[in-house]
Design goal:
single chain, conserved putative lor/sdh protein from methanococcus maripaludis s2 fold, Elongation Factor Tu (Ef-tu), domain 3, Helix Hairpins, six-stranded antiparallel β-barrel, 4 helices
Length: about 375
């Protein structure tokens, strides 16, 4: 009897255990769905949009000053003073160098002595002419004697005037022994040294005015139909930083046969302090601005130099990553213009690119 009772007690326990196992299996059923959700990688996306993109070309340009002078002496001699150094700012008329003037000073002094002699003869002839005129009018001397006095006076006057002009010329020549700045500017290289003998063919230095600058840009002839005055020009350094902004102000009517190009000039604003005469820079000319599809720089990955992006592509009830090869233009801010491969509205993936593969399930965010 006791065995029957024990068996009746055990049976409910077995039934309860079976029910518990059944309930446990039912509560564990959603696990595959959770696992499926875990495999859809959350990614940030951005839709491809149209934005105004400038169409540009970049050329090498040379900065030139409108006022640039090569300083050469007008006389020969030895340099006795050099009063400036390369890079100095000078004013118009400021003394830069001096050539030994002693020989010219002696010439001027000698000529001044000759002029004084000529002046004495001239003054005597003038006084004598006045006396001869009175005697002639009194009938004491003949007309011939008076005419001779007039001729002597005129000869003395011409001789004195010639001597005075020669003295002034020699004084002006003396000024050439002082080398002065023709205008305000910056002193360039000084290849000569104190004591050097210089002649009229010797280059002493240069003076460049650094405020009226122009960029000389040589544009290929295949762009002849597009180039025009007023086109925007950005002057860049070797790192692509903008040094100055300008526009094309001059276009040559002739083609350079040697380079098969057209010279264009762009005036540089006076506010620019980063450019110097004869400096080489890059000139970026903007031909036009058109609406173009753009993608953020963060969306682009390169393999072997080939750019591509991942696009969140609809598939079934979700999305998968699809790799697309693209052709890009030059960066504009933080975006790339897309020349081919994408269209407006495509959703490019911005995050987790290193973990993506073709066909991987993704969950777009944003």
């Amino acid at each position: 009897m006791s065995r029957i009772l024990n068996s009746r007690r055990v049976l409910p326990l077995i039934v309860c255990a079976a029910v518990g196992l059944t309930a446990g299996c039912k509560s564990a059923a959603p696990a595959p769905a959770a696992a499926a959700g875990f495999h859809a990688m959350p990614v940030q996306v951005s839709s491809v949009t149209l934005a105004p993109v400038p169409m540009t070309d970049t050329y090498v340009a040379t900065i030139k000053s409108r006022r640039s002078a090569t300083i050469q002496p007008q006389v020969d001699g030895n340099l006795t003073r050099i009063l400036v150094k390369s890079g100095d700012s000078v004013k118009a008329g400021q003394l830069l160098m001096q050539i030994d003037p002693l020989k010219q000073i002696a010439t001027v002094q000698s000529q001044q002595g000759t002029q004084a002699q000529k002046k004495a003869v001239y003054q005597y002839s003038e006084s004598d002419l006045a006396r001869q005129k009175n005697l002639y009018q009194a009938g004491i001397i003949s007309k011939q004697a008076y005419d001779q006095a007039v001729q002597a006076y005129q000869n003395a006057k011409g001789d004195y005037d010639s001597s005075a002009s020669l003295t002034n010329t020699q004084k002006q020549q003396l000024a050439y022994y002082q080398i002065r700045a023709p205008f305000a500017g910056i002193v360039g290289d000084i290849p000569v040294h104190l004591g050097d003998y210089v002649s009229t063919t010797t280059m002493l230095t240069t003076v460049d005015e650094n405020k009226d600058l122009e960029a000389y840009i040589y544009i290929p002839t295949d762009r002849a139909a597009q180039v025009r005055r007023g086109l925007p020009v950005d002057l860049l350094d070797s790192s692509g930083n903008v040094l100055a902004k300008s526009t094309i102000s001059f276009i040559s009517p002739q083609v350079d046969n040697g380079m098969q190009s057209i010279l264009a000039k762009a005036e540089i604003p006076h506010s620019s302090q980063l450019l110097r005469n004869q400096q080489l820079v890059q000139a970026r000319i903007t031909w036009s601005t058109t609406p173009t599809a753009v993608v953020p720089v963060l969306a682009v990955t390169r393999i072997g130099g080939q750019p591509f992006v991942f696009v969140a592509e609809p598939k079934g009830k979700g999305y998968v990553a699809h790799q697309v090869t693209v052709t890009l233009g030059e960066t504009v801010g933080n975006t790339y213009p897309v020349l081919s491969g994408l269209k407006p509205g495509d959703r490019v993936i911005l995050s987790g690119l290193q973990f993506l593969q073709e066909g991987v399930p993704v969950q777009p965010l944003g």
